[in-house]
Every structure is written in structure tokens, then in C-alpha cells.
What we know:
Elements: E1 2-3, E2 10-11, H1 21-27, H2 45-51, H3 56-65, H4 72-81, E3 85-87, E4 93-95, H5 98-109, E5 112-116, H6 121-129, E6 133-138, E7 155-162, E8 168-171, H7 178-181, E9 182-185, H8 187-190, E10 194-202
Antiparallel strand pairs: 1-2, 3-4, 5-10, 6-7, 6-10, 7-8, 8-9
Helix pairs in contact: 3-4
Amino acid sequence: MTLCTTCGTPSLTQFASPDLVAKIVYEGHDRADDPAWRESGAATLEDYARWCAHLCGIACFRMALGPDAPSLFELRDGALKYGAYTEDTEGVIHGLIYAPFAEYARDVHGVEATVHRHLALDEILQLLDEGRTVMTSVHFEIRRPERPAPGRGGHLVLLTGRTPDGLLHLHNPSGIDARSRTAELSPEAFEPFFAGRGVSMVTRMGVSATR
């Protein structure tokens, strides 16, 4: 486990092998061909391969909980019991669903979690300044912010603070390299990817907002 030198938050991915993320998300690499899958806490390779692409939010939560957090799939199992993920009749996975997730975070992990169904960028800055981490809905291509944003939402990243010069410090569970897994973006660069919703949290880890 690698701790971020800027904020002390673990840098984790939703896939068990960080060096395979780029191949998985851009080259169609088979998620079942991940030699480290057992480290996720999944009971079987099939379960890992089916779920890992859906666990960006749980990976964010795991980072927010700190180095002693349960495994990715132990957190997934807990979230499932609260209805934070659902499966339709065709077996399609839906989630992370914010309200039951926040209930799970509060009840099981003692995390003060608040759902923000409508969240403006300046409100994110205020939440960070209050010492909260903020899990935000963004387009997954935020991992390559130098390119035009193709859309908003569909993926979750964890904002842990902002730098003295106002850059947002974020952890991306599907980052393809070290630079995109822990990144610093200006609010202006972040905004085109941002869907205007998220969940803010206060954890026992006590991450402060401004670096």
C-alpha cells in the first residue's frame, strides 16, 4: 500500500493490479487475468472479474478510511447489505447508490457521510476547507485532464483537500499511472468532468483540507 505524500491517504485502485489498469480500461485486457485478484478480498476470481469495474466508489471509501480499512470486497459486501448496489433481473449491476451507502458508512464504520444530490464547485471547496473528504461523480476520462472532457459523471474520485494555491487534490481509483492516481487539478480543469453531485465524509483518519 502506498500513502500519498501530500495528504497521507492511501493510493488504491479498484483493480487489484495497478499496473494493469491502463490495459484493462483502454485495451480490453481481461479482468479475470489479474494475478493479484485475491488481494481484493474477493471470494472467487469470477466474483472479482464481474465486480471490480463497478467498485470505484468503494475504492474511494476504502482510501478515505485509511491504511487499516477492510478489503475492497469486504466493503463491497457491507454496502450490498445496505442496498448501495443492486442487480436487475438481467444481472446488470447498478450503483454506487448514495443514500444507502451513506447509511452504511455511518452505521458500520462511524463515518459522518452526507449526500449532496446537487453540489456546486464552490461548495466542494467549502467542504474541503471544513476538513471533509468529498467523493464526487466525474467522467472517467478525468485521468487524462489535458484532453477535452467527453462528458460528466459515471465514475467516482475522492477529493482529499486543496493546495495553498487552490488546486484540488484527488485520488482516482482507476488512474492509469501514479500521476493520474493522485493528481492536482485546478477547479477550472476539474469542472468539465464534474456531474454536480457526490458524498462528503468525515472519517477517523482526520485528513485536513488545505495543504
